[in-house]
Amino acid sequence: MPSPELGVRALFFDVFGTLVDWRTSVARESELILGTLGFELDWLAFADAWRGEYQPGMEEVRAGRLPFSKLDVLHRANLVRMAPRFGLDNLSDEVLDDLTLVWHRLDAWPEVPAALTRLKARFRIAPVSNGNISLMVDLARRNGLPWDAILGAEIAGDYKPKPRVYLAACAALDLAPSQCMMVAAHSNDLAAAAAQGLRTGHIARPNEHGPGTGETSPSIEVDVAGRDLADLATKLGL
Amino acid sequence: MPSPELGVRALFFDVFGTLVDWRTSVARESELILGTLGFELDWLAFADAWRGEYQPGMEEVRAGRLPFSKLDVLHRANLVRMAPRFGLDNLSDEVLDDLTLVWHRLDAWPEVPAALTRLKARFRIAPVSNGNISLMVDLARRNGLPWDAILGAEIAGDYKPKPRVYLAACAALDLAPSQCMMVAAHSNDLAAAAAQGLRTGHIARPNEHGPGTGETSPSIEVDVAGRDLADLATKLGL
Q1: Element counts in chain A: helices (H) and strands (E)
Q2: Contact B148/A at CB under 8 A
Q3: Alpha carbon of B31 to those of A125, A173, B44: distances in Å?
Q4: Does the ipTM exceed 0.90?
Q5: Strands of A62-134, DSSP E
Q6: Candidates B120, B145, B147, partner chain A, best to mutate (most A CBs within 10 A)
Q7: Quick one: CA dihedral B164, B168, B170, B174, positive or negative?
Q8: What are phi and psi of B107, to 5 degrees?
Q9: Dihedral, CA atoms, B162, B72, B100, B19, nearest 10 degrees?
Q10: Cα–Cα distance, B175 to B169 (Å, whole number)
Q11: By CB distance 3.0 to 4.6 Å, which of A178, B63, B132, B202 could disulfide with B70?
């Protein structure tokens, strides 16, 4: 099990799914906007469908077919592509802009703010998310996430799981990859970080995409695994 | 006088001199390292001489003669250039590395942490400094500076007062320049920010380079001026 004695100086966090519950938050916030306009949808299905466009949207950037755009831009394009499936063919630019910002109003899983505060006592802590800086700032202010810095895709100019996103985060803190631990609820994120030499911490989020849909344990070997972030903090000696 | 009603959403801060007392901190921390090795210098003069290499070092980057390097790298090169003037001709790489990091251990002016906390209640707050991310993180952890994000030179890939440093900070928060206020104790920094459309806030730091050496008031027209950061917060309605 890793411990400060093993030289971990910074913890990097995946955010969507790992620290915040995007699914019920996007459903709730979308209903607030579209329900007022008279739409009645399956709001959780709407959130799932929007999130379903997430990886294909980023892949255009990762593959070099599109220049880097911040995730807000991709979220909006993904919405435009997906909305007709829900009968939303003629949303105004203003409504599309408003909806795009629902991703700035996601709620943290309950234990996260206090656990991050515990972890900050010993480690530098930063999101290494595909979300853009302004989105990360808004989630932090909403939920009281005490980041030391906002790292991730916008700093690197590319999207996870591209190696440079993890390596740019280490470089920003002047640390070797072996001094940094990626924390995520997704084994593929951790596998990509480990391939660059980072340590890995897994958190179970069994309900990320709905009850029983998320990873309850990692599918790869990791340095530490927790039931949630509070458990991970305990296992890191805090 | 600017107020939240006038649309300012974010405050950007110069750090060296404006928020932290680099002079007495560098003198003290350098003495801790070099005094132990038997050197007896005028430590304040040493700090002043090191800082004196600051603008020429960055100018190589701003003029395009050197690729962007983080300020830690420039601080070390500036030290190597300046140290012989103090009889320090043969410092080891280890001592040079240790000395470079004294810039990560600067003390905030006394009112700064509480004033930033007040300001954060209404504004997004971020350093827009020429210091690198890891340096800003270390100063924040040492002094309890509750940043929303670390912006500035390393994000922009260039040094103030180049326009892109200010504009990259606005863009990172999805704000127009008119929604952002640069806060500094140096009129030239504020003039450069204003030229890009940012609002401006001045803080008096009359003792930055020693008693009576700093700006007691701005030499240009600014939107708001404070005796210190607490006074500025009050004048911004907090």
Answers
A1: 11, 8
A2: yes
A3: 31, 26, 10
A4: yes
A5: 107-108, 124-129
A6: B147
A7: positive
A8: -95, 140
A9: 50
A10: 9
A11: B132
What are the backbone dihedrals phi and psi of residue A10, each rounded to the nearest 5 degrees, phi first?
Answer: -140, 145
Give the closest residue to A165 by CA, choosing from A201, A136, A189, A149: A189
Place of tokens 């500076």: B145
Q: Which two tokens stand for residue B172?
A: 């990172």
A72, A146, A172 member nearest B133 (Cβ): A172
Retrieve residue A70's tokens.
């911040």
- Please, what are the averages of pLDDT over each run of 10 residues along chain B (238 residues)? 71 98 98 96 97 92 94 97 95 97 98 98 98 98 98 97 98 98 98 98 96 95 97 96
Question: Which of A148, A155, A170 to mutate to probe the B interface, most B CBs <10 Å?
Answer: A148
**Phi, psi angle pair for A181, to nearest 5°:** -120, 125
Query: Which amino acid appears at position B71 of this protein?
Result: L
For strand A199-203 and strand A224-226, is the pairing parallel, antiparallel, or unpaired?
A: parallel
Burial class (CB in 10 A: 0-12, 13-18, 19+), B163: middle
3-class DSSP assignment, residue A55: helix
Burial of A212: CB neighbours in 10 Å, binned 0-12, 13-18, 19+: exposed
The alpha-helical segments, DSSP class H, found in B67-186 are 71-82, 93-100, 112-120, 133-143, 153-156, 163-172
State both tokens at B20.
Answer: 């932290």
B13: tokens are 């801060």
CA distance B236 to B238: 6
- B116 contacts B145 by C-beta, under 8 angstroms: yes
Please answer whether residues A228 and A237 qualify as being in contact, where contact means their C-beta atoms are separated by less than 8 angstroms.
no
Instruction: Show the tokens assigned to B206.
Output: 């009359």
Q: Closest by alpha carbon to B127, among B13, B203, B10?
A: B13
B214-to-B17, B118, B174, B210 alpha-carbon distances in Å: 9, 25, 33, 8
Cα–Cα distance measured from residue B68 to residue B78, given in angstroms and rounded to the nearest whole number: 15
Task: Please state at what angle helix A71-82 crosses helix A43-52, rounded to 10 degrees.
Answer: 120
Nearest to B37 by CA among B106, B87, B111, B81: B87
Q: Encoding tokens for residue A226?
A: 């927790």
| Closest chain A C-alpha to B18 CA, distance in angstroms | 20
Interchain CB distance below 8 Å, B133 and A149:
yes
- In this prediction the pTM is 0.96
B141 lies within 8 A of chain A by CB: yes
* Domains of chain A, CATH where assigned: 4-19+109-235 (3.40.50.1000), 22-104 (1.10.150.240)
Phi and psi (nearest 5°) for A24? -75, -25
